[in-house]
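FORM 12-B: Structure-to-Sequence Request
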């Protein structure tokens, strides 16, 4: 059981490293979004997806180890309680991990929200730019009749009643 707690701690250490890596990727992504470097985003998003897959694998591994401790969905607090009974030397390390995981979760959530806001803003800017291009390059059919005359100046096309001469 002592060995299981040590394995659990080691897997959580690996998860923390992956989350820290993800945090660095999100910080870099934020910088790329602010600077409008869309080409570099493709590579970075691929790295983020790879790291997310690594985190999923580590999570599965942690759940397998936790299952031997009694429940695959053990929280860090529950693991710390078990460690207090079985291996007091590892308790401080597990508490540090729990704190670090909480901090990383909050940081990642904030960075993700910021990145989503930046992406939405970028899409709004692209839409406005496209509207400007479209207004510039496409003729405005609302302003001109089929003869190319300005409709506002041509009062005869406003009325549906034609005068007889």
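FORM 12-B RESPONSE
SEQUENCE OUT:
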């Amino acid at each position: 059981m002592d060995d299981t707690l040590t394995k659990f701690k080691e897997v959580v250490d690996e998860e923390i490293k992956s989350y820290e890596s993800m945090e660095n990727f999100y910080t870099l992504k934020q910088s790329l979004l602010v600077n409008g470097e869309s080409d570099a985003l493709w590579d970075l998003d691929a790295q983020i997806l790879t790291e997310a897959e690594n985190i999923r694998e580590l999570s599965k591994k942690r759940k397998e180890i936790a299952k031997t401790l009694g429940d695959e969905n053990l929280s860090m607090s529950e693991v710390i309680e078990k460690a207090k009974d079985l291996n007091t030397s590892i308790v401080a390390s597990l508490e540090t991990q729990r704190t670090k995981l909480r901090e990383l979760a909050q940081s990642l959530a904030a960075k993700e929200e910021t990145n989503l806001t930046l992406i939405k803003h970028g899409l709004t800017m692209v839409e406005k730019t496209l509207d400007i291009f479209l207004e510039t390059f496409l003729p405005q059919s609302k302003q001109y009749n089929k003869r190319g005359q300005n409709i506002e100046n041509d009062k005869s096309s406003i009325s549906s009643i034609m005068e007889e001469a």
